[in-house]
Amino acid sequence: MPEESRLYPGALSRQQSQPFLFYRDASIYHQVKGSTVVYSVWASRLADTAGFFGDLLALPQAVETTVDNDVSTPRSGNGATEATPLEIQAGLEQFEVFLECVFGSSTKSHPASFWLMALEMADFFNAASITHTAQRMLGVSKDLNPVTCLNLAMHYRLTDWLEPSITAMGFSAYIILAEAATKILEHRAVLAANRPAPIHHSSCEKPAACHTAWSHAWWGEAAKETRSRNRVDSFKSNSGEQHSPCNREHAC
Description:
Blueprint: H1 12-17, E1 28-32, E2 38-41, H2 43-49, H3 51-57, E3 63-65, E4 72-74, E5 86-88, H4 92-103, H5 112-125, H6 128-139, H7 146-156, H8 162-169, H9 171-193, H10 207-227, H11 232-242
Parallel strand pairs: 1-5
Antiparallel strand pairs: 1-2, 3-4
Helix pairs in contact: 2-3, 4-5, 5-6, 7-8, 9-10, 10-11
C-alpha cells in the first residue's frame, strides 16, 4: 500500500481516489466520528483558512505521562499522530468537501450540490474564504431558484444576495413577505399587551406579592422584549430563569 494512502481497514478505495487528503509530511490527523478514514493534512493551512481550527490548534497540546514521568505520549484524540486522530463532528462527505476546498485544486469544476455543502461547512468551521468562494460559484449556477437563494442568504447571512433574490422573485413575492412581516409584528404587539397569568410554585407563600412582581417584570421588560424583533429570542431563552415570579427572592 502506498504511504500516501495509509488508512485504517475498510477505507482504502475512498482514500485512493482522493490522495491529497493524506500527506506524509502533514502535521495533524483527523477522523470523522463513526468513520474509519484518517486524514493527514497541514495544520497551518487549516488554521489560516478556518477560525475553528485556528482557535483549536492554539490551545496547549495535552500529553499523557507514565507514573515515573519518564515517557510522554500524545493524549488520545489530539490529532498529533495517526493513532490519535482528532475526531470531527461532521458528516463524512461534508468534511471531505471542506478539505477539498482547503487543499484541493482551485480550478476543478464542481456541481452546485458541492458548493452548498462547502457553504455549510464554511459556516460550521468559520472559514470566510470558503464562504466567499462558494457564494461566488453558486452565484453563477443556474441550478438555484430565487427562493433557494433567499433562504441561503438568510441562513448564512449573505446580505448581498437578499435584494437580487427578492427582485428575481417578483413584486408579488415582496408583497407577501412585507405582509407576513407586518402580521408578525402585530402578533407580537398583541402578545405584549396581554400579560399571561403568573404560575405559582407549590411552595409559594406570598401569591399576591408574586403577582405584583410578575406584573412589574412583564410591563417593565418582558413586554418590550416580546415586541422587539431582535430581542424576543433572548427573552425566550431567559424567561424561565429571570421572569418566573416564584424564583424572585423579594416575592416568595
